[in-house]
Write a structure and sequence with these properties.
This protein has about 475 residues and is an alpha+beta fold. It folds into two domains: about 20-310, 3-Layer(aba) Sandwich (Rossmann fold); about 320-475, Porin (Beta Barrel). About 20% of the residues lie in helices and about 40% in strands. The protein contains nine helices and 24 strands. The protein has helices spanning about 1-20, 60-70, 95-105, 140-145, 150-155, 185-195, 220-235, 245-260, 305-310; strands at about 40-45, 80-90, 115-120, 120-125, 130-135, 145-150, 160-170, 175, 180, 200-205, 210-215, 220, 240-245, 265-270, 280, 295, 320-330, 335-355, 355-370, 375-395, 400-420, 420-440, 445-455, 465-475. The strands form five sheets. An eight-stranded antiparallel beta barrel has the order 17-18-19-20-21-22-23-24. Helix 7 (about 220-235) packs across helix 8. The longest helix is centred in the N-terminal third of the chain and has 17 residues, at about 1-20.
């Protein structure tokens, strides 16, 4: 048993070093095909169809959709792949928005780019704190029904790669002639995001004292119209078929002033430590390779929890992972026997859906049994098991409860000692069933595990209940 434990621990250490990130955040982005391209992960949110008719806006949902269509065109161009989560109107609930923000944190590595687009009502409470109003939001119960700026800031801070935030979330819903006005002070929120750990680049639709305008003449909000035009090539400031963050800032600022006749002034905040870098290529009328891009449109009838059944795989996402674990437990045997057990396991797994995975579990158990009526009796078992496993996770947050089961074969070596006499038996290819349940939190796992096996050569049936802890390596974004 000792030699198995040494081998297992060696594998754990080796695989732990293997997951060390060998690439820096400042990987060069270039439009040539023979060097590294990052992936782009996007959450686009647009809410205008509020329950209160006085709060309704015409274009936020279309704005978010147009933005998503603009960035998806960069798949295979500026970016290796582009994945978008699009939430509009009835699908943009507070819960779905929080789940989408968590998804953005989990899939973006330090070599990727993330974008967060928000269009809808922004409301400040009496303390000046900013809240984004999702569908179903109550202006009189902001902290309970809306998404607070601290939630957005925390999500942005936890994103490993570069993050661009586009906020057209300052809408009052008051009519201004044939144009609808959008207002709320978001300047402080923008600065909070810029001061986050990774230094977000924040584009806002207007200054805190201005309205943001939308009009049927533009078929968009002024800010989003300029943003989409800029990403599509109009912001190619240097004429080299490349759109950079400063080029986009320059174009949006001038275009919005032109559209609104100076009544709206967009604001862009770029941390000083971040140099100008490209975010889009001028691609013209290209055909998008669907294998390199995904827009998941979350319909009203579904929540984020239902996404695994709509989209079986995620381009650019690595479904393979390896679980490692240790456990201690008690053996449940008929009187007069009692005992304990310990195990270590190694389990490669493949996620068919983000919530459902299958695996092949290799487990080494050591079980010791004793006789209450005879101190000279000791039974030692070394068991090697091989299970086909399945796990189902409830949710896609950082804390994810799960249930799982496995069916497999095992081989065991049993030593039955009475005093100085020892009998050894070896059994091969016997069936075993395993059940488990617990939770994953980030890369930590805690589980209750039950291994059910039949009677051994000494007519003793020993079922073992374990408390197991573990971690996993892999999953998430593919490394190219």
């Amino acid at each position: 048993m000792k030699k198995y434990a040494v081998v297992f621990l060696s594998v754990m250490v080796t695989l732990s070093f293997a997951q060390t990130n060998m690439f820096s955040q400042d990987s060069v982005v270039n439009q040539t095909d023979n060097i590294f391209k990052p992936s782009l992960y996007v959450v686009a949110i647009g809410v205008g169809n509020y329950d209160d008719p006085n709060l309704r806006l015409e274009f936020p949902a279309k704005d978010a959709s147009d933005f998503a269509q603009a960035v998806i065109r960069q798949a295979g161009q500026m970016y290796e792949s582009v994945d978008v989560r699009l939430l509009t109107d009835r699908s943009a609930t507070a819960e779905n928005i929080r789940d989408a923000l968590y998804w953005l944190q989990t899939v973006t590595t330090d070599r990727d780019i993330a974008m967060l687009y928000i269009a809808g009502h922004g409301v400040n409470n009496n303390s000046g704190d900013f809240y984004f109003m999702p569908v179903g939001g109550d202006i009189n119960r902001l902290s309970v029904t809306c998404v607070g700026y601290m939630e957005i800031r925390n999500a942005v801070s936890n994103i490993a790669g570069k993050i661009l935030v586009f906020m057209d979330a300052c809408h009052s819903g008051n009519l201004f002639g044939n144009q609808r006005r959008r207002s709320a002070a978001i300047s402080n929120t923008a600065f909070e995001l810029v001061e986050a750990n990774n230094g977000a680049i924040v584009f806002t639709s207007s200054t805190g004292r201005q309205f943001s305008l939308e009009s049927p003449e533009w078929n968009n909000g002024a800010f989003t119209k300029a943003l989409v035009e800029g990403l599509s090539g109009s912001a190619d400031l240097y004429g080299n078929n490349t759109v950079t963050i400063r080029g986009l800032n320059f174009y949006i600022s001038n275009r919005v002033k032109e559209l609104t006749q100076g009544r709206q002034t967009p604001t862009t905040i770029i941390p000083q430590r971040i140099p100008d870098f490209p975010i889009a290529l001028v691609v013209g009328n290209v055909n998008i390779n669907i294998t390199n891009s995904t827009i998941i449109i979350i319909p009203e009838a579904y929540t984020v929890e239902a996404l695994p059944y709509l989209i079986p795989t995620q381009p650019g996402y690595k479904p393979f992972r390896v679980d490692l674990g240790l456990g201690l437990g008690t053996a449940v045997v008929k009187s007069p026997y009692w005992g304990f057990g310990a195990y270590a396991h190694f389990e490669p797994k493949f996620a068919i859906f983000p919530q459902l995975s299958i695996g092949l579990k290799f487990e080494m158990d050591f079980v010791a049994l004793y006789d209450d009526t005879n101190d000279d009796v000791e039974i030692d078992k070394e068991i090697n098991s091989y299970f086909l496993t399945v796990d189902y996770h409830f949710g896609q947050r950082m804390f994810r409860p799960f249930l799982g089961a496995g069916l497999g074969l095992y081989e065991s070596s049993t030593s039955f000692r009475i005093g100085n006499e020892t009998q050894d038996r070896t059994e091969m290819d016997k069936f075993s069933v395993m059940f488990r349940g617990g939770f994953d939190y980030r890369h930590f796992r805690l589980a209750l595990v039950c291994n059910l096996r039949g009677k051994d050569a000494f007519d003793i049936r020993s079922q073992v209940f374990y408390v197991g802890v573990g971690t996993y390596i892999g999953g998430g974004r593919k490394r190219r």
